[in-house]
Specification:
With about 45 residues, the chain is mainly α. About 95% of the residues lie in helices and about 0% in strands. It is built from one helix and no strands. It starts with a helix and ends with a helix.
Length: about 45
Amino acid sequence: MSEARDRKMKRERRFEMQKAEKVLRACRSRRGYELFQEQERKK
């Protein structure tokens, strides 16, 4: 019983981590894009 629960918890945790990673990557790319736009404006 506890083993199945552990497996479910691990799967959910992995899913949460993947979701967080996607959000982080999106934020990072958006930030990089904003910086790029600023540099283009300064030229």
